[in-house]
Amino acid sequence: MRDKKGRFVKGYRASPKTEFKKGLVPWIKNKTHSKEAKSKISALHKGKRRSPRTEFKKGNIPWNKNLTKKTDKRLNYDRPTTFKKGRKQSKKWYELMKGRTPWNKNLTGWLPKERHGNWHNGKSFELYGLEFNDKFKEQIRKRDGYKCQECCEFQGKLCDSKGRKYKLIVHHIDFNKKNNDSNNLISVCRQCHTKTQYNRLFWVEHFQAKISKL
Q1: Of 13, 25, 67, 144, which one's alpha carbon is 20 to 30 angstroms from that of 199?
Q2: Which pTM does this prediction carry?
């Protein structure tokens, strides 16, 4: 017996039928029909009506007979092809590209971080306080009922793009990582946490109003 890759499987025992057939030569091997048999077969098929498909194809010349690159217009052999490693472009592609300036000729790279619209003087690189540990964060999650305070999604239902579960993020309302007061911390999911990085003044007022009601 062979596996999917065509290799023999060790330790496989054939069935009694296959064991019996071992060494036998097929009866039709190296045999052809005699002239009498051929004439009988042709007599049986005479007068039979072929299917509409085969009747339609009679006398039709296949579209790809004597096909050349110059005569065939449907395949467009000379059209510009996309770039692939180790593949040469057509002559027509080089003619089309003559005189064109590449889009990345004057590209100097990414914008410096100071010019980015979401840059806040490197606040994201600040270190957290020593008291902001896993035990303290778990207390904040328990206080919030293990629920996102923005979308009200429970922690047990939270999953990332790969289907892995994760815990709620403990967010600093005033974006100050050193201010670890319980009134400055709130539990949110990842999607809601990314929203807080834009229009920060709005989210500070929004979460402060929610904390006051807890």
Answers
A1: 144
A2: 0.47
